[in-house]
Amino acid sequence: MIPRYQKVLFVILLIAALGMGFKLWQLRDRAHKRLLAGQTLAPTAAPVVAPAEQATLVVANDLDDSLAPQMHSLPLPADPGARARAVLGKLLDLYAAPESTHEIPGGAASVDQVFLLRAQGTKNSGDQLAVVNLTGTFAASHPAGLETESLTVLSICATLRANLPAITQVRFLVDGVERPTLAGHADLTRTYLTSEATPVEGIKP
Amino acid sequence: MRWSSTSALLVTLALAAAAQQTPSPQSAAPAPGPRFVVIIDAAHGGEDTGAHLSSGQLEKAANLALSVRLRSLLTARGFQVITTRENDSFVELNRRAELANHANAAACISLHATESGSGVHLFASSLAPANPTRFTPWKTAQAAWETRSLALAGAVNSALTHAGLTVTLGRIPLPGIESMTCPALAVELGPQRDADKKVTAEPDSPDYQAQVASALAAAVLEWRSDPNRTGARQP
After folding, report:
1. Exposed, middle or buried, A173 (CB in 10 Å: 0-12/13-18/19+)?
2. ipTM above 0.85?
3. Who among A147, A183, A184 is closest to B121 (CB)?
């Protein structure tokens, strides 16, 4: 014979369990709907036509082993990462053009992404490290040689420094992963200091 | 008779031994001078082909051909030459530096070739010169030899220019060379061009390579007699 108070307690606990189960299902359903709504309504970056500005591109010349600054007008986004990508894209467009002084096929599409991070090991907290992610196609089609590969790396570093002075260090990735060299010669495993890539008329020792 | 023949034999042997011990003026070897070792490093090799030259040849083959020419010229001038590779084999950068460092070399020359640019490109490491220390970091060992590497680059530049070749000088990161404890530089042969920038000689052209090898040998000869050059092991 089960006491009456135990029957009442059992019924109360059963009702509470069913109520909590229902509430849990409701919350889960609400969270799922919120997630779906969030994905649908996520703001996508609208193509903004940035105003044209003057940018300094440090252009390499294979014939005299020099890096020379050139002024170019191009649309520059406000976001520093996008800005860095835009100037590098323009630089590589110059290299892909006919009659280039430093011929490399590929153009602006060769710069996949540019990430900006806080630079390590510097005194100034505002210093930034730019991680330039190049495409595998660009690396595969780059002419091989100590001079030509070094000029490409140094001109990228110098161009970043000229337009975004906060960038003091540059690292390179190819298709998102580290690679020993660009095309067999220029070392891509190290961190390059932009201060060492200043434009000069012929890199003299 | 037996005694006389035996004694004659002993006398002959004794005379022969005495003759071997007594140096004759004609066979006296010159006093050995200070050891001067030159390392010639033909870059790439094996699966690492390097650049594809316009002539269709691979950079690794052009480098090896120039290495053989330069070795012959330096050996003929009395230098002790060590090459990092004698055939189409892959040698790691660290192994090349080990060879140079164990040899206590007085000059290390890494040979490259490219289809871009013009003339001969000379490169020294971009490491900042540093004072020598008892223990040197492997990746920046060249820093203590940087000043002398630049002096060697100056000697090579003079010799190449004197030979009528176009030369550009530079300082760039050089992973293999930066571990070498000797005056070191990279020599990259680009195509020879005329005033209209048209190619007149490819980097693997035998005549062009002979001209460069001859100038490099002259530069090393000058480097050996340089009064400012100090011992190889002590920068």
Report:
1. middle
2. no
3. A147
Tokens read off for A156: 């990228």
Strand partners, A69: A58
How is residue A144 written in tokens?
């091989």
Q: Which of B108, B112, B142, B115 is nearest to B127 (CA)?
A: B142
Among A62, A150, A202, whose Cβ lies nearest the Cβ of B172? A150
CA B112, B113, B118 angle in degrees (round to 5)?
Answer: 125
Asked if A203 and B170 come within 8 Å (Cβ–Cβ), the reply is yes
Task: Look at chain A and report how many structural domains it folds into.
Answer: 2
The pTM of the full predicted model, rounded to 2 decimals, is 0.78
Q: What is the mean pLDDT of chain B?
A: 85
Residues B223 and B235: their CA atoms lie apart, in Å, by 15
Domain assignment present for A104: yes
DSSP string for residues in B116-168 = SSSSEEEEEE-PPP----SS--GGGGGGGGHHHHHHHHHHHHHHHHHTT--EE
Q: Can you read off the two tokens belonging to residue B225?
A: 């007699």
Instruction: Name the residue range of residue A187's domain.
Output: 52-196
Which of B153, B168, B174 has the CB atom closest to A65's CB atom? B168
- pLDDT-derived band of residue A34, with 50, 70 and 90 as boundaries? confident
Place of tokens 């040197």: B136
CATH of the domain at B186: 3.40.630.40
Confirm whether B7 is domain-assigned.
Answer: no
Please tell me the distance in Å from A99's CA to the nearest CA on chain B.
12
Structure tokens at A87: 């100037």
**Shortest Cα distance, chain A CAs vs residue B176, angstroms:** 10
The most confident of A59-68, B108-117, B224-233, by mean pLDDT: B108-117
B123 CB near a chain A CB, below 8 Å?
yes
